[in-house]
Amino acid sequence: MFYDKLDRYTPYALAALRIAAALIFIPHGLQKLFGFPAPPASGLPPVLSLFGIGAILELVGGLFILLGLFTRPVAFILAGEMAVAYWMFHAPRGLYPVLNGGDAAILYCFVFLLLVFTGPGALSVDGARSAGGHRPSWAR
Predict the structure, then answer these.
(1) What are the structural domain ranges in the chain?
(2) What are the two backbone dihedrals, phi and then psi, of residue 94, each rounded to the nearest 5 degrees?
(3) Could you name the Gene Ontology cellular component terms for this entry (predicted)?
């Protein structure tokens, strides 16, 4: 059947989602920490503030997700960060994500949550490190 043929590409589709999400996520940390590509409207946050710690998680965690390194625990932390971001900063501005600006936080939360359960997919440091391990090939 057609879907059976698609199944063999699941690890690569998962890797594409992981890599694309990381490449879009990393600049949020870069912006808050280094003002690149442009500083936030509110200015650069102190590193040890809530926003500064979030920026470190976004930059370092995003790099780990990009590489597929410690994917599951890092994705768990980032999913939590995005849930907190939504409920602390977006939800108080209104019920609808399209109006409160929280749609990206919700999507990141669920993409990272998916990675907690699936692992990184193909093309990852985790998969290379566990070659010959007990996990199924699609979960690497």
Answers:
(1) 58-139
(2) 140, 165
(3) plasma membrane
